[in-house]
Sequence to fold (598 residues):
Amino acid sequence: MVQSPTINRVMADERAASFTKRSIKTKAKDAGLRLALSMVDLTTLEGKDSPEKVRSLCAKARRPMPDDERVLGERLPHVAAVCVYPAMVPVAAEALEGSGIHVASVATGFPSGQYPLDVRLRDAERAIADGADEIDMVINRGAFLSGRYDAVGEEIASVADVCAAGGPGGRGVHLKVILETGELETYDNVRRASDIAIEHIRDGDFIKTSTGKVSPAATMGVTLVMLEAIRDAWLGSGKRIGMKPAGGIRTAKQSLHYLAMVKETLGDAWLTPELFRFGASSLVDDLLRQIVKRKTGRYAARYDFGVA
Amino acid sequence: MTNRLPITKTYKLFIGGKFPRTESGRSVKVCDASGAVVAHTCRASRKDLRNAVEAAAKAQPGWAGANAYLRGQILYRMAEMLEGKRAELAGAIAAVGGISDEAARGEVDASTDRLIAFAGWADKYPQVLGCHNPVTGPYYNFSVPEPTGVIGVICPDEPSLLGLVSLIAPVLCSGNAAVVLASESNPIPACVLGEVLATSDVPGGVVNILTGLRDELAEHFASHREIGGVLAAGVSADHRRLLEAGAAENMKRVRVLGDATDFGDDAAMESPWQIEPFVETKTIWHPASA
Fold:
């Protein structure tokens, strides 16, 4: 059983808020906007998702701005992954083939996690078999809040085993553990849940704040607590765990605040899509607006970038 | 009573129904004829303009979706509120000097009447600008005017209140949202109008009022793609060229009223043709039953 430190909420929030005060301008801003774009897990998790919508999202993932070469004189990076429900994985896998963009599937009884363990594992297995190379699992918050930490750890370990064994040629797929911090009540709980997850996942796997179905979703404060858990694991055992804040990050400015926080908490090594992601859907359009504004000096309209 | 220092007011911007300071932290002194400072106003930056456009774009669909009768009632309510602030507005108009108290009161009254006129037009202009077109074939064919979206309104220096009201009333009447740049020589009436709007029933974001310099902001009104049209009066030839060149890039409509414009001419300024430049015509074909 891991011993987690307690968190001083006031100071954590204060520290997190301080990252919004960094002056990121000109070249640093240009680089930051493009880096943020390359870190987006473009997400659609709605009951009304259709294959057509997912294909359209995948097209946007491959080429966020189809006329980038004409308007900007450069090819913008593609996003990191497309994140969908398990039923949509075959569609996304086909649409993204050969693009280098990951297919992420939420699984294990998303978003509640309130299903029997065997059903949840089967959910993940099926998504991997259908072509997902990243699994975004949810933890059982009910078990966590009633103090059954071992049960939570064992569940995470079971899903991690499924992910380690799956994928093309059995090379394994990446796992992201969603803590759903909006339901964990305190920063102490967020830290403890982070430590439990980190203990049971492999190098290169992620911890993730939220499903996007609960408010509040990602905040600067919880993200900082989780980044510090990742830092302590890195300093302690050398394990490199990624971070994914998800939900509520809609503006380019917010994304730069998060990047400043990652850089100052974990260092440049984490400023890569391999170790940091944004779970978002509308963020991409705002990033594009800012990139266009920086280049042309003109503000773009919201409808300039196709909906996906 | 001891000599008391006068409290000169520092006016803020009016964006999204709130009164933020300019993000740039800059201000402009407004002085009377003798050079004494009567108030400070914000010197808005392009980022304030951007924020105002965001707020307008967010509010506009709801305003356009409100039924015409309700929009008319809200414009009428604006007029009522103006009537209630008659003395303060007249004082603001006269504050910078060069205009008599009586003329200032007359300007407030004319502004109130102008709002009333367009309150009346709100549910009537579609019948004037729209039509039922004769077509060959068993169809009903209608053309109906719809609001353009977010309109940038650049106000003349004089008249500071009547100019502003005359420009925004027809724009709002059809369901557009407005981002307004107030008179440069006397922005105080515009600031007071913002305070009036905040307590009227106009939804936040439908009217946004910036104070600042046309030199800094005109080009961004022209180039911002979310602004669907620009209505300006009393601008210099240079600013007019800037607006037209910037708008050519994105095909937005620019209407510039010339210096000869008489804002006191009710027949011209209260005509439904003031509404027409910032509506789009939608034509609908509907099968007629045989």
User: Anything to note?
Assistant: Chain B has a mean pLDDT of 94. The two ends of chain B are 87 Å apart (CA to CA). Chain B has ten helices and eleven strands.
